[in-house]
From TrEMBL:
Classification via Pfam families: PEP-utilizers (PF00391), PEP-utilizers_C (PF02896), PPDK_N (PF01326)
Top-level EC class: transferase
Catalytic activity from the UniProt record: pyruvate + phosphate + ATP = phosphoenolpyruvate + AMP + diphosphate + H(+)
Record-annotated active site: H469 (tele-phosphohistidine intermediate), C845 (proton donor)
Domain PEP-utilising enzyme C-terminal intervals: 533-883
Domain PEP-utilising enzyme mobile: 436-517
Binding residue positions for Mg(2+): E759, D783
Lineage, highest ranks first: Bacteria, Deltaproteobacteria, Bradymonadales, Lujinxingiaceae, Lujinxingia
PROSITE patterns for this protein: PEP_ENZYMES_PHOS_SITE
Species whose genome carries this gene: Lujinxingia vulgaris
Residues annotated as domain Pyruvate phosphate dikinase AMP/ATP-binding: 24-60, 69-300, 311-372
Record's protein name: Pyruvate, phosphate dikinase
Amino acid sequence: MSTDDIFVYRFEEGHARGDGSQKELLGGKGAGLAEMARLGMPVPPGMTLTTEACRSYLEHGFFPEGLEMQVRKGIAWLEKRTGRGFGDTDNPLLLSVRSGAARSMPGMMDTVLNLGLSEDSVEGLARQSGDRRFAYDCLRRFVQMYTSVVMGVDDALLEEVLVRHRRRAGVDDDHDLGWEELFAISEAMRQKAVEVTGRDVPRGPFGQLWGAVEAVFRSWEAPRARAYRKLHRMNGGGWGTAVNIMVMVFGNLGDESASGVAFSRNPATGEARPYGEYMIATQGEDVVGGRRSPGPLGMNEEQHGGMAAMERLMPEQYTELCGYMQELERNYHDMQDVEFCVERGKLWMLQTRAAKRTGQAAVRAALEMCEEGLIDEEEAILRVDPKLHLERALHRQIAGSPPEPIARGQAASPGAATGRIALSSERAVALAEDGEDAILVRPMTSADDVEGLHAAVGVLTAQGGLTSHAAVVARGIGTPCVCGVGALRIDEEEGGFYLGDDFFKEGDAITIDGGSGEVFAGALKLKDPTITGELKTFLTLADRYRRLEVRVNVDSAAEAELAREMGAEGVGLCRTEHMILESSEAVLAMRQVLLSTDWESREEGLEALVNFQRQEVAQILRHMDGLPVMVRLLDPPAHEFLPGTAAGRKRVAKALGISEEAVGWRVDALRESNPMLGFRGGRLAMVYPQIYEAQVQAIVEASRQVQDEGVRTRVEIAIPMVADPGEAGHLIAVINDAVARHLYGLSREADVAVGVMVEVPRAALLAGELALEADFFSFGTNDLTQLMWGMSRDDAARFMEAYRDQGVLTEDPFEILDRAGVGLLMRQALKQGRMVYPQLAAGVCGEHAGEPHSIRFFEALNLDYVSVSPYRVASARLAAAQAFIAEEQAARSGEAWRGGLAPMKRQSNGD
């Protein structure tokens, strides 16, 4: 880098060098400040140090050449604009230094306020403001932030200093401390920093500034920031953060001043009405920190006994703020989250960004913005995230009438959750790792709780409001949250919390309702979500832009019924082995087939198996009434159906009337060293064709049975783990013969299609030959990925993290389809298959089928359907619509798709 590089971008009301489109360079906060300044909003003058400067610092360990000179010129400009001097003892210029990455990371990185203040200039600030307490409050805040953020002193040690002085003064709140106590606290914190670090807080303003800038740059690599990026899959650790240096405006300058956070729409519900919180005589960190409960913006949100609304106490500033939020929504075409400050009646805008919102709010806001003409239908569909918003919009609720709550707080993030009390993030993570649901219970959360917040199924805090750290993060990740339960008193020494006289210890079960703000003792029964109201309207809109069918993977009739409610367009995978394994009678029948030594006994087992599967398949066909139902024949290794213990073998021997020795001999004979690649799928049918014949009999008879009831059927049968065209041809013939034997009485519309699972790489490579016999392909991407990568999906977690941490892989191929490898094989298989049989239907039924990035690839590949678990049907419907829109937009712009492979040309549907 040279001295010609520009690292500093200035902004002030009415003018900015940058703009809102430059997030990668200026960070989200800097780009937002520049945009607000260009729009003529009241933004304090300041400058943004670019992410390029941060990356250079992190790479080399020192500031890039030219940065310090540009910053000094910027400071001189700020002095001229304000008439104050940086470090001047009589009229000091104070600054805020705040981080701002390209993508929002709430609370993850560092901020220093009131920078430039010292014991030498605090009296000058007191004279300038006419408020000595305010001046010493600013000094205390600066020393506390600087010693923590820049010098690394533990926050708990600094909090001890505060608590000690509050007790000595006989007050409960910092707001009640006089200037003498505030000065004493500042000095005690400085002394604590010297004890811990051996260094004092710099008195010179530029020494403070360079320390703060370095601290913000370093905060990009702080453990909590790295953990946040890891949890949110924010790959590519080289982005860095910008630094925003801005003239301080003071929300703590008396009762005519305030700080707050506001949303242009309600982030929990999406209601088109300004929403937020503020606090009189405070600085911004107080509002989001959760130490005190703030007041609402609008009078409609006022609560009995609570703080009066900003609309009531500061009506002019409230009206002005609402106007700016409306203008920002029109400018960005999106819901906004802003920070603001009122200094002695003057409103200042300090930040704007796209608001994090619940799934419910995302859906409602997208629909209403479309109705208002702010966005079109395509943008409304693209605005809602299938995983982040839609899957989490389907929250569970408390079933029936709940008992009387043990406490009430603020409804910060909707949905009900039941779990065990965890008083720390570490405990929440440990419970989650043990397969237990945890409710994280804290006085308030901080950035250090990020892993616990993600591990917990619910969050409960004693302090904080709807814009506190816990509320913002919980809404962003779709976790139910209740904040500000004033009656909640945590006693970590006793290992629990009190609500009045009642004590709840860590590990006890509680239930929270983030939609009502209520807390209940014990584990209440929860009910599954349904698609109604605005969500139904939104998905109906998305369906109009969707080409891919969305089917469902089911193991039971109950799942099929749920899937229809979610909008599934058929069954793309019915796993017959799961049906069997969930029924003790069916398992015994299967064991009789595998263990019997005479044909008569084996036939009895097959007959029982037919009767069981006929009933199960018939129920699924009834729920799907006319929609396709693809039934996969038995896939797992034979040994999975057999007893694994001596006691189990004894029980089976008794039930089947054969000797324990015979059972043991057969179990040993069927044991395999590598079951995944062993005696399973089509190979089982090559040795025991009677099993597949019996399953086909059950399927066809089920179809006949429900047809007699007036139910329409479209049956598809798939053969798993096929590797060779000859093998496929032989097994398809076996199945077709069995179908023909049992087909009498079926209507022509109910003809049974027979296809193959493409999950072995050899089958994909020979897909053209397979298509000579198969009616359809179903790509089983779970096994296809395992066999392509040569790794087990169940074991990959123990080493996949190392690949991602070291930058070898950016994505887990078992979560997001490996487009370059597995995707290439799928594309070649589909091309070969459709060259032989142009009408060849093809879909995907692995876990990738519900993953939005993978769905984009499947749309480009021109597959016919994806098949997902019941609770992912709704999000897959949206992801498929978004994929179609993205493909159409790319085609209109003439841009090649960047998904890893160029898409095939979409074929005509013939209509």
